[in-house]
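JOB MANIFEST
job_type = single_chain_structure
chain_count = 1
residues = 75
[input]
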Amino acid sequence: MSRRVNVMLDDEVWQQLREVPQGERSRLINEAVQDALLRRRRAVAWGRLRERAAGKGRPTGTTEEWVREDRGGHG
């Protein structure tokens, strides 16, 4: 299912986005948001690992489990 949303873009970003054909803009924005959300999840996961490594708690699970958690449970 898709959702229509309204967002505000900086003028410079809008000018660059106008160079992308109309039929490709939504896909480009969707991919960019997916990438940004993945980077955010990974940053949070790394933060948790750093805290554990700093002695604030013993890590639980294996590296494989952490990777699966970061990937949303997919193998």
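[summary]
The two ends are 24 Å apart (CA to CA).
The mean pLDDT is 87.
exit_status = 0
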